[in-house]
Design brief:
The complex is a heterodimer.
Chain A lengths: L1 H20 L11 H34 L15 H31 L7 E8 L2 E6 L33 E4 L1 E5 L4 E7 L4 E5 L4 E5 L5 E5 L5 E7 L12 E6 L1 H11 L5
Parallel strand pairs in A: 1-5, 4-10
Antiparallel strand pairs in A: 1-2, 2-3, 5-8, 6-7, 6-9, 9-10
Chain B lengths: L2 H6 L8 H6 L4 H31 L6 H6 L11 H20 L1 H15 L8 H23 L28 H30 L12 H32 L11 E2 L2 E2 L7 H35 L6 H14 L15 H13 L1 H15 L8 H23 L2 H7 L3 H31 L1 E2 L2 H27 L22 H28 L1 E2 L64
Antiparallel strand pairs in B: 1-2, 3-4
The chains are: A alpha+beta, B mainly alpha.
The structure holds protoporphyrin IX containing FE and copper (II) ion (2 copies).
């Protein structure tokens, strides 16, 4: 029994390692520096925890194999060993806390660095179950919104009285950004919590009604990428899907001009 | 502390079925009642998980039996999205509250704490009875929520507002089903609060003569620390639940900000904060995961020492580690909220504090390994589940090192990586602790030995099964698959990785099926199991000097304790274990002192 069980622990450890390695590179290609930084922090963590995992399970399997009832020799009567306990605790503590501190670099770059000047501002408003994306028009200013103006053709309630809103560009479930230019999303919600998750950028952020939360990124590769909702928002949560389209700047300007509301 | 005797003259052995088995004040009966409740709950929870897995692996395949079972929820043989989400919610809620909080603490804690410290009952037997019956009412309320017309709630086990606060306008499952869900949680909080007070007072006041704190079995330390965590965290959840109810039904706006537009209509609320609820919820929620796991850690420590025939390695370190885990647990709730929109500077503190929990967890793991090192392990079923606990706890715990880092969590939050992580740590570890406890104490609780062959089959299938279910979930999460998803097949970036889902579902199918072995074992044992001797595992703690099963008030005369709880294989001693009540002379002169 002891031998079988010890071997089983080793086998399960090996299977786990193989299955987890299958996840390496499973995420879509990272298309930003921040995304690559998060990836390297992830893989560093995977390597460290992988070593701890194999050592701990290896010892467990070995002791189970070795110290079964009926083996030769006597039971070691011992109540502990401070050196091993304190030493093990300190090593684990130092490694894990160092990891936590190192991980703050990517976090700080994303969330603690201030606004960049030439950033493109885009407003993203979640609602059950769609993403309303809004760009300021030529005037560079977004129009005011208010609940009483919400209707099917005006999902976020842009005020008809505010001239700044006349040229705002609306896009549903499609976020278009120029490549290699900093973008600041201002995330909002009309109704419940949602979460704007862009796997290719490795970032997500809840949208919270009542707040406007900035989320900054710079996409470095053109293409079309999936955006998912990552906060439970009701029965249509799984279908609250958008796309991120990263374009050459000229193409982006053209798209923006094309999508502008016709002048009345 | 002999006031135990005086105190208990007040409650003589009751006669009659109702007073004896239903509204009983005997801690052992109450413990068994909690245990049975958890057993019923775990099978409901598991059945729901199977339906979810079916949907995840085969989103496009209709199953005729689903339509037969749920004409509305599975029209045409396919689950509706709202039905799927209500199962996620019910499965999570039932498992966390009515299994993991009920069996380890309410069940085994009630049954075992008084006996193991040499008391005749809990300090407040009437409160004890009340806390069970309030828990039972909470269970009734959750079942009502499940069957309520208008839809079972679908806010997840976390029930975040605004979704949970808005009422039926916010979609299916947000009507009375959600209200009953909140009522259930609130009742559960009240019950746990009452129970925890009782545990704390009992531990501090009713220990028998010689039972110093540092002679308590680690099980008692687990239950005691858990009770302190419950006392400090459940009231916060209760407050959050009551405020949520008021927002729903009394027009308040604690969690609802202004300018909401739901279903195209403006909502008349203003001034509240949805994030406030998350702070309250997780201030409870993180300690809750330790409430689920600490009693299991205690039981597993106990069983590992007993079955390895060795003193526990580092008793004091184990006690300090339990306290450190419990204490730190109150300062890390923000790791559930890195992406919530809270101040990004706080994330730095929460992140570092979270990873320091690795230290006491490592100490515990080292000490479990140290305990079996150099022992002579008896591989009976309780020991198998205990060693399985250690393995699974390590596997699951390491996932926390990823999720505790705010930067890495930006990608992994709310993906299947999280689902894999918490199932292994909180879910499976705690369940293995419950099974270990069941196989270990069953002989004393009911007087019969459970069948070893069936126990071993149950264990090995379950161990292999949980690895095959929950490790691949981490992998899918590494690919970025979001959780609480009815269907992920429309995402291009997931095409490849979600092919693992059918394997997971098959593993779940087999693992869930294997739990039938446990049920058969229970029934078989009750009917035909071998009669248990008084101390079948040759253990040292006080429950094993009692009659089998123990009589009302546990002991014929008050026990007096002379030894620590883990005196196994003392060199030169007559037997390889020394009961806590054996005379001091049982330990040969010259043996190194225990601590
Ligand atoms: C055979 C055993 C089990 C299987 C196959 C299973 C499967 C699942 C699945 C498929 C989900 C939903 C994933 C999603 O859509 O996000 C889930 C969620 C969950 N499960 Fe389990 N589970 C099992 C046992 C347990 C146990 C023992 C616990 C006890 C802690 C547990 C606690 C939870 C919780 C808390 C959730 C989250 C619910 C939510 O998102 O609100 N599960 N499980
Ligand atoms: Cu959503
Ligand atoms: Cu936590």
């Amino acid at each position: 029994m002891g031998r079988f069980f010890g071997l089983l622990i080793w086998a399960l450890t090996a299977i786990s390692v193989i299955v987890l390695l299958r996840g390496v590179g499973a995420a879509p290609e990272a298309i930003s520096q921040a995304g690559r930084d998060i990836d390297s922090q992830f893989y560093l963590t995977l390597a460290i925890t992988g070593v701890v995992f194999v050592i701990a399970q290896g010892l467990l399997g070995w002791f189970i194999w070795q110290y079964r009832e009926g083996r030769e020799g006597t039971v070691t009567y011992i109540h502990g060993n401070n050196k091993i306990e304190v030493g093990g605790g300190v090593v684990i503590g130092v490694v894990f806390v160092a990891l936590a501190l190192l991980g703050q670099k990517a976090w700080a770059a994303l969330h603690l660095a201030g606004e960049t000047e030439d950033a493109l501002h885009v407003e993203v408003t979640g609602q059950q179950f769609a993403w309303n994306i809004r760009y300021p028009g030529k005037d560079g200013v977004l129009g005011e919104t208010a609940p009483q103006f919400v209707e099917t053709v005006n999902p976020i309630g842009i005020s008809p009285r505010d001239p700044a809103g006349k040229d705002d560009v609306m896009s549903i479930n499609k976020l278009v950004v120029p490549v290699n230019r900093p973008v600041q999303l201002n995330l909002k919600s009309l109704d419940v919590l949602h979460d704007f998750f862009m796997p290719a950028l490795r970032i997500k952020q809840d949208t919270v009604p009542g707040l406007s939360i900035p989320l900054r990124f710079k996409a470095e590769k053109t293409g079309t990428y999936d955006v998912a909702c990552a906060e439970l928002c009701g029965q249509g949560h799984y279908s609250m899907k958008a796309t991120l389209e990263v374009m050459e700047p000229a193409q982006f300007e053209a798209w923006l001009a094309e999508s502008a509301p016709s002048e009345e | 502390m002999s006031e135990a005797t005086a105190h208990h003259d007040a409650h003589a052995a009751p006669t009659g079925f109702v007073r004896r088995y239903l509204f009983s004040m005997d801690h052992k009966v109450i413990g068994i009642q909690y245990w049975i409740l958890a057993l019923v709950a775990v099978f409901i929870g598991m059945a729901l998980s199977f339906l979810m897995r079916l949907q995840i692996a085969y989103p496009d395949t209709p199953f005729a039996f689903l339509e037969a079972l749920f004409p509305k929820g599975a029209e045409g043989g396919q689950l509706t999205p709202e039905f799927y989400l209500s199962m996620v919610t019910m499965h999570g809620t039932i498992m966390v509250f009515f299994v993991l909080t009920t069996a380890p603490q309410g069940g085994f804690g009630n049954w075992g704490l008084p006996i193991q410290i040499g008391a005749r009952d809990m300090a407040f037997p009437f409160l004890n009875m009340m806390s069970f019956w309030v828990t039972f009412l909470a269970f009734v309320a959750i079942i009502i929520a499940l069957f309520f017309a208008g839809g079972a709630p679908l806010g997840g086990w976390t029930g975040y507002p605004p979704l949970s606060a808005l009422g039926p306008e916010a979609g299916p499952g947000q009507g009375w089903g959600m209200t009953w869900w909140i009522i259930s949680i609130a009742l559960f909080c009240v019950a746990s609060l009452i129970g925890s007070l009782n545990f704390i007072v009992t531990t501090l006041v009713l220990r028998c003569k010689g039972m110093t704190l540092m002679r308590m079995p680690l099980t008692c330390w687990g239950w005691f620390t858990t009770a302190i965590l419950s006392l400090l965290s459940f009231p916060v959840l209760l407050g959050a639940g009551v405020l949520l109810l008021l927002d729903r039904h009394a027009g308040t706006s604690f969690f609802l900000p202004s300018n909401l537009v739901v279903g195209g209509k403006p909502v008349d609320h203003s001034g509240g904060s949805p994030i406030l609820f998350q702070h309250l919820f997780w201030f409870f929620g993180h300690p809750e995961v330790y409430i689920a796991i600490l009693p299991g850690m205690g039981a597993v420590s106990q069983i590992i020492a007993t079955c390895a025939r060795k003193p526990i390695f580092g008793y004091r370190a184990m006690v300090y580690a339990i306290f450190a885990i419990g204490g730190l647990g109150f300062f890390v709730w923000g790791h559930h909220m890195f992406i919530s929109g809270m101040n990004p500077y706080t994330a730095v503190a929460f992140s570092v504090l979270t990873l320091t929990i690795g230290v006491p967890s490592a100490v515990k793991t080292i000490n479990w390994l140290g305990t079996i090192w150099g022992g002579k392990i008896r591989f009976n079923t309780p020991m198998l589940f205990s060693l399985g606990f250690v393995s699974v706890f390590v596997s699951g715990g390491l996932g926390g090192i990823f999720l505790g880092q705010s930067s890495v969590d930006l990608f992994l939050h709310d993906t299947y990586f999280v689902v894999g992580h918490f199932h292994l740590t909180m879910g499976v570890s705690a369940i293995f602790g419950i099974f270990a406890g069941t196989y270990y104490w069953f002989p004393k609780m009911f007087g019969r030995m459970m069948h070893e062959g069936m126990g071993k089959a149950h264990f090995f299938i379950s161990l292999i099964g949980v690895y095959l279910i929950f490790i691949p979930m981490h992998t899918i999460g590494m690919g970025g698959a979001p959780r609480r998803y009815y269907d992920s097949t429309s995402f291009k970036y997931l095409e490849d990785i979600i092919s693992m889902n059918s394997m997971i579902t098959w593993a779940a199918f087999i693992t869930i099926g294997a739990q039938a072995i446990f049920v058969v074992n229970l029934i078989w044992t009750m009917l035909a199991g071998k009669k248990a001797s008084d101390n079948p595992w040759e253990a040292t703690t006080l429950e094993w000097i009692c009659a089998t099963p123990p009589v009302h008030l546990n002991f014929d005369e008050d026990p007096v304790v002379h030894h620590g709880p883990y005196e196994y294989s003392v060199p030169g001693a007559e037997k390889d274990y020394i009961m806590q009540t054996d005379p001091p002379s049982a330990v040969p002169a010259g043996t190194p002192a225990q601590h």
